[in-house]
Write the structure tokens for this entry.
Amino acid sequence: MIGAAFGDTLARAQAGDEAAFACIFRDIQPALLRYLRVIAPDPEDVAGETWVQVVAGLGGFRGEEQAFRAWLFTIARHRAADAGRSRARRPAVPLETSGAEDQLTSPDTADLALEAVSARAAVAMIATLPAEQAEIIMLRVVAGLDTADVARIVRKTPGAVRVAAHRGLRRLAGQAERMGVTQ
Amino acid sequence: MSGPDAMHGEMPGFIPGRPGGEHDEPLLDTIFDRRPLPPGAPPEMRALVRTLAAAAGPAEPGELAGEAAALAAFSRLAPSGGVSTAAERPARRWLSGWPARGRLPLTAALVAAAAGLGSIVAAYAGVLPGPIQEMAHVTVGAPAASGGNGSPTHVVSSQPPSSPRVTDSSGHRQARRAGPVPAPSQATSPQPRREPTGRSTGHPVPSCTPGRAHTPPKPSPTQLPPTPGPGQTVGTPRPSATAGCPVIVIQPSSSPTR
């Protein structure tokens, strides 16, 4: 999170300052990419489309940093849904893959080595949760959004979001302990 | 049923004596709020905190690989004068941004709606060709087509328009058209109208002045007899476009009929 300097940074980016936009990009891109790894088939492509749309609408945005992140992740979710529909329309063509890509989105928890918990491994563990719980946890924890913003993004009530988040955390806690994640 | 009551393997996610249910919600909220766990927190919660911290950690190698492309898009879409705001975009640009395949159905729908509306107006004006006018008469209650030549029926009356003078086969529909909501006097005491066959329909005589409350005229001998009386000219039953429904045009006399 950029914090108190966000307003000035956003204003400079809206005025065309490339360095200011790069600052915003570096702050959000890791969380965006990790979120998309949980919900999207092609996270890098969807992240690129998201940023293009953010740039196109940047001048019209008004709000604080939390609202900006909520706006950006809402765009990302829509682009991910579009990508999912586009992929569903395409004929299935078997491709030669190494298997590493599959492991990013649907790993077997027993295969995850967490001797040193990396962000990628942690995201992969969250991705093993039910899709709704995984998305909500990513938006709450990784994107840093509050329950109300997450509820608007996933189109559920705040109460439903809270229940799903707690269920996901309980399940994730059991997995993390079994995987040997310790302090 | 609880964990100990279940058969082995039926509740694999339930760990007896561990946090579960709803009593751990404050602890989970503490984790969401990124506050430090209390000293006696269970080990799986500590593992959870570490996992979530890793997921929200700083950028790893490769995660910022898209920065160059994003900056290129920013340079392309955001000129030196700043990024244009949505409010400054003209409305035409919003529409032109639609794909062509999205505009085509919209245009077709607008044309179809305009054509349908125009047809209805023409039907009520009675200017459509005979068969089409009759179809409109049956479907939307437009005036019936006159027989044969396709022109509407015109009855010249010497009476003020408030007096019902025309009785034809479409009297029921005309009554609805003249006033969708009947006047109180009509609604409470409808006067049965006798058709040329002598059969009573039970419907009030239509008003010729829509929107004006009036007392429906009582059936009088000047209107109802099958044969013309003094001072009356009873037209011959004309074949209506609706088969089997003759139209009788009564030309009134100068004497009031009420």
Summary: Confidence is low (pLDDT under 50) at residues 12-20, 85-102, 147-258 of chain B.
